[in-house]
Structures are given as structure tokens and as C-alpha cells.
Amino acid sequence: MATFTGSDDLRGAEFSDVSLRGARFVRSSLSGVVMRGVEIDGADIDSPWLLEDDGSLYVNGVNVAPLIDAELNRRFPGRELRHAADPAGLRDAWDRLQEAWAATMQRVARMPPGTEDISVDGEWTFAQTLRHLVMATDKWLRGAVLGIDKPYHPAGEPNAEYGTDGLDLSVFQKTMPSYDEVLEVRAGRVAMVRDFIAGTTAEQLQATHPAPDEPRFTVTTLDCLHVILHEEWEHHRFAVRDLDAIEAKALHAGEQDG
């Protein structure tokens, strides 16, 4: 099986009469790719940033990006509030988001012990997902907005795959914290965001701060909260997707045993 990595530049490459069946593209740019007369039945595309940047994805001449956005809003009520721009809207957005997370946490609690540590197809486990959201809150609220000098909790999970600019990786634990520890830290960060939004004003939302990944640029408090909301909703979607896969696999195994 051929493997292409970052050292391989395939920009402008042309594939004609070839089979890419079962190929996997991870952290790869497919922007502007043109496909004609292709068989894509069963293809699985995940692009978390497509819908945040008013992006487009054309299938048979139809821009399906708005349709995908609408469907995700239907599946995850409250997601449509992630672009709220005033304190009241942000409070509602955070409450609805945490209602969704609470239901998912209860789902995990009802599943077999150890479910929180199962990785599906190499993705983060449920526990790791919660740890990453701790890191995201620390980065964009404690660090960027509140200006705390050492904002990161060691139980956080940095997303090293997408770059760690501005992160001191030595801060984070080298060993896995217990799930109970993760839940405790996560609950504290959820309350922190809730309390911050409850006390903010429209004027404070427009305050500017150095961007955590590139201090030459500035971001507003509202920008930072929007990043947190985006991270929360996308990782909730990933978590639900993987929990569905875990349950489906268990059901299939039960049927096989039966």
C-alpha cells in the first residue's frame, strides 16, 4: 500500500482511471480538488471548518454545505446558537450546549465500564475528548481573554496533530489522569465559561487580546468564545459518532455470539 506524507507534494496531481478505493486522507488539504465521473458511494468526509468559514462543497453542481449545516443543527439542537454575538445569546448558547453534553455524559455512564477509554479508528477516546476541551478553554479563556500567565491544567489534552503554537507541552501530564479526575476538571471549566459569560457585557465582548497562536494578531473576547463554542460542538459531534460506533460494534458482537 502506497503511503504519502507531508514530504510528498501532490498539488496539481492528476489521477485518471485509477482506484482510490479504501484510501484514507488525514490532515490533508483537498481544497479545490475537482472530481469528474467518480464513484463516491460510501465515501466519508469530515471537514469541521467547512461550515465555519462559509465554505462550499459542490456535489453534482449543488453546494451541499448549507444543507449539511442545517442537518447538523437538526441533529444537535442548540448548535445553531454557536454564533451568538451578545451576552444573552451566549448564555443561551452555552446552556443549550451543556444540555447536549449532559445527555451524552449520562449515555456514557450507562454504557459498560471502560467505554470512556475506547478509541474508535484511532480517534480520541471520550475521556481524551473531555481533556482536549479543558485545554481549549484554558487556551482561549484563561490564556487569551483573562491573560493568566500559566493557564493550562496538566490534565488537558493538546491537539499536537494540528500544531501546538503557544503551548508548552511539558505542562501536560505524561500519564493518563483518571476519568473521575477528568470529570472534575472538566466540570470546573464548564462552570468557568458559564460564570464568565454571565458577567460579561457587550462592550467587554469587543475587547481585543493577542491571538494565542500568533500574538502579532489580535482577537476579540467574542472571537475566543466562538472558538470555544466551535470546539465544543465539533467534539461533541465526534463523541456521539464514536459512541454510536461502539454501541453498533457491541450489538454486532452480541448477535454473532447469539
From TrEMBL:
Which part of the chain is the DinB-like domain?
97-238
| InterPro entries membership | 5peptide_repeat, DinB-like, DinB/YfiT-like
Descriptive protein name: Pentapeptide repeat-containing protein
- Lineage per the UniProt record: Bacteria, Bacillati, Actinomycetota, Actinomycetes, Micrococcales
